[in-house]
Design goal:
The chain is mostly helical. It is built from five helices and no strands. Helix content is 42%, strand content 0%. Helix 2 (48-58) crosses helix 5.
Length: 144
């Protein structure tokens, strides 16, 4: 990873920490936000810049509300750090698709997190932002 990318990720992580500290969303998470790991062989079209932008979107957006600030899951959404995928195969295109379309409650396969995933994370994410978030999420479970 280049020094410039590491600096950008560190800046984003600090900004997220500050925003999380100012949040009125309820219980605070003791775990720090995960930093995307260096990934051997990124999927076609995925760049380090997309990963950094995706990180900056994941935490203040609704993603972290269900998957946790540390992306290790909550009762509302599964762990994104490990390599076990309940709904999809964990490929970058599958992550893009599931964030785009969501998962209705009737199709959720995890008894431990039986809540629906709203399309676009329940927000107005653009297609580009979805690709960025998917790039970040991909790196969480595909690190080297």
């Amino acid at each position: 990873m280049s020094h410039r990318l590491v600096a950008r990720i560190a800046t984003v992580a600090c900004s997220v920490a500050i925003l999380a500290g100012c949040s009125h969303s309820g219980a605070a998470s003791a775990a720090p936000a995960p930093v995307a790991m260096e990934v051997a062989g990124l999927p076609a079209g995925v760049t380090a810049s997309m990963i950094a932008v995706g990180d900056s979107i994941f935490h203040p957006a609704s993603c972290q509300r269900c998957h946790g600030m540390d992306a290790k899951g909550t009762v509302r959404g599964p762990d994104l750090i490990d390599d076990k995928w309940a709904q999809i195969d964990g490929t970058y295109p599958a992550i893009v698709a599931i964030v785009t379309t969501g998962v209705p409650k009737s199709k959720i396969k995890m008894a431990s997190a039986p809540f629906e995933m709203k399309a676009r994370g329940g927000t107005n994410l653009s297609d580009e932002q979805i690709r960025d978030v998917a790039a970040y999420v991909y790196t969480l479970s595909h690190h080297s």
